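Translate sequence into structure tokens.
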Amino acid sequence: MAWEISMTVDTAPADEVGPIRPVERPVPLRQSVYEAMVELVVAGRLRPGQHLVETELARQLGVSRQPVREALHRLEAEGWVDLRPNQGAFVHVPTDQEVDQLLDVRELLEVETARLAARAATSEQVARLRVICHEGEAAVEAGDTARFVTVNNHFHAELARMAGNAVLAELTEIVGRRVRWYYRLVAPLRGHESCAEHLDLVEAIECGDGERAALIAGKHTERTRTAYHRPAS
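Result follows.
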């Protein structure tokens, strides 16, 4: 006697994938804790070398220790935090080599951004850049370093948007967050001259002079590098 074997066969075409699942809402707690901790580091609320205590962080953030622990491991993988055996977690202290490597990338991005922005900028966008420049000058005059660092980052983000290259803008945003962390250390030294350099860059962009804008952008980053390596007085 022949036996019939009953089998369930997936008749879906080979190139079809399974059903798309809805995205998680709200944002997972571990992601919110991670973002909050990165911002605390970038803003200087958690200082380089500072010992991070899970229980204290959890208390301040209003969460349990588990998402804090998960965030710390992710922060270590991304270079924001160092986890030391039998000692705990510490905010990473950037080395001179790390700063130089980041500024090398920053300079490449900024030079091309300036060149593209000079070709694409509208009068309205140039006017917006001037407003941001004035906001930076006001922050410097008020001695508000935190505000100036934020405005400085805004200026460069606006330039990236003006350039009209979405990939370039995305990379600028990624690099910009870490640059903001390092830049805090030199902002008091760079405030006035940085504002002047921003205005020079705006002038070149307004004139549509891409090569001059690129040159100014490159020197702008190099002066930040020099200030970072300047011996403390």
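Note: The longest helix spans residues 96-120.
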